[in-house]
């Protein structure tokens, strides 16, 4: 199973890069997670890789850029990104996303929103048949300023979350996960999300919230590596 999933991720990422990289691209965003590893690998194989800079979305992503011999830039230097590639935890048919499973959502959203074209790479498990929150059952990741966690927890329950969990480092760290921006992550389960735009707006309005893992109206295409080796492409309508 794990080989199958790795092959699916690789097939989706390679095809997404091959089909979407504009000839003139000078600034390319690189997301975080295990699937975008293959997008960075593919970019590193290009003969013209000295002609563009790559903008990371966190520590892991910066390492990917360096390890693949790509030129590293920052979003402060390059606030206009030609195209960005990133993974997702769940994708609905309207190309709304849940992201932040790897706790990198704020910088991922910053780069995605700065990008002219935002392309998702994923394996078949990330597709939702209708709404977000159906196949990804761990809740919506929300980055918060640390000392707001108790208040934001109460606020999220008032907004209707069934469970609100401050994400812990587990065996890797005693206490909460600290993001690349020195913040905390809350995972709030709202069940099936019929209107992610409205839910995002309500959560984002809470004092203490930096951003949510609901990415709406920003994805142009999503590439899914399938179990049979094929790649499915969903496009924004
Ligand atoms: O949002 C993310 C990190 O914050 C990742 O892009 C998302 O979790 C998908 O990761 P993977 O490709 O490993 O499934």
UniProtKB/TrEMBL annotation:
EC number: 5.3.1.6
Pathway given in the UniProt record: Carbohydrate degradation; pentose phosphate pathway; D-ribose 5-phosphate from D-ribulose 5-phosphate (non-oxidative stage): step 1/1
Enzyme class, UniProt record, top EC level: isomerase
Swiss-Prot/TrEMBL catalytic activity: aldehydo-D-ribose 5-phosphate = D-ribulose 5-phosphate
Keyword terms of this UniProt record: Isomerase
GO molecular function term, any single one: ribose-5-phosphate isomerase activity
Gene Ontology, cellular component aspect: cytoplasm
Keyword Isomerase: yes
One Pfam match: Rib_5-P_isom_A
Coiled coil: none
Keyword Isomerase annotated: yes
Gene3D superfamilies from the UniProt entry: 3.30.70.260, 3.40.50.1360
GO biological process: D-ribose metabolic process; pentose-phosphate shunt, non-oxidative branch
Family under the similarity heading: Belongs to the ribose 5-phosphate isomerase family.
Protein name, entry field: Ribose-5-phosphate isomerase
């Amino acid at each position: 199973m794990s080989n199958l999933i790795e092959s699916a991720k690789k097939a989706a990422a390679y095809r997404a890069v091959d089909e979407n990289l504009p000839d003139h691209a000078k600034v390319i965003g690189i997301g975080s997670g295990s699937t975008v590893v293959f997008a960075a690998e593919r970019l590193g194989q290009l003969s013209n890789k000295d002609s563009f800079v790559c903008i990371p979305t966190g520590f892991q992503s910066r390492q990917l850029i360096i390890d693949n011999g790509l030129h590293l830039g920052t979003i402060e230097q390059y606030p206009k990104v030609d195209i960005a590639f990133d993974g997702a935890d769940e994708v609905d048919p309207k190309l709304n996303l849940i992201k932040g499973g790897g706790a990198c959502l704020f910088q991922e959203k910053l780069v995605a929103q700065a990008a002219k074209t935002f392309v998702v790479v994923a394996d078949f498990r990330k597709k939702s048949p209708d709404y977000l929150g159906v196949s990804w059952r761990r809740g919506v990741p929300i980055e918060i300023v640390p000392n707001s966690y108790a208040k934001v927890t109460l606020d999220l329950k008032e907004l209707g979350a069934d469970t609100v969990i401050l994400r812990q480092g587990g065996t890797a760290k005693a206490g909460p996960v600290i993001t690349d921006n020195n913040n905390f992550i809350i995972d709030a389960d709202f069940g099936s999300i019929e209107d992610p735009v409205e839910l995002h707006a309500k959560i984002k309005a809470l004092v203490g919230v930096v951003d949510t893992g609901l990415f709406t109206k920003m994805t142009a295409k999503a590439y899914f590596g399938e179990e049979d080796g094929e790649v499915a492409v969903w496009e924004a309508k």
